[in-house]
Amino acid sequence: MYPAFRAVAELQEEKAAVRSNNWALQAEKIHAEMYARAKTAVEAGKDAEVGQVYVCPVCGWTGEGEPPDECPLCKVKKEKFVTF
Question: SS3 of 47, please?
């Protein structure tokens, strides 16, 4: 769905929508990696080992462990991240 949404946003010259779409696509790639690791653990009969998880409230970028000083996608400061 992201390529189609991006194409419409580009056609309509909606720069904020193009940026938001790109952020969402990049965040989903990270989510897919996390899900794949969890699936591998479950298939091995184990629990997935997950440390601290944080999410950027602006673009959805997600990480584990110690957060960076700023979001690598949208540059929001780490103090804004939501931690789980």
Answer: coil
Residue ranges per domain, the chain? 2-83
Q: Of the candidates 39, 45, 51, 4, which has an alpha carbon nearest to the alpha carbon of residue 25?
A: 4
- Is the domain covering 2-83 a CATH 2.20.28.10 domain? yes
- Name the β-bridge partners of 70: 77
Predicted TM-score (pTM) of the model is 0.74
According to DSSP, residue 77 is labeled B
The answer to whether 14 and 52 are in contact (CB under 8 A) is no
Residue 15: CB atoms within 10 Å: 10
Q: What is the pLDDT of residues 23-52, one digit of tens each?
A: 988 989 999 999 999 999 999 999 988 889
Residues in Cβ contact with 70 at an 8 Å cutoff, skipping those fewer than 6 apart: 76, 77, 78
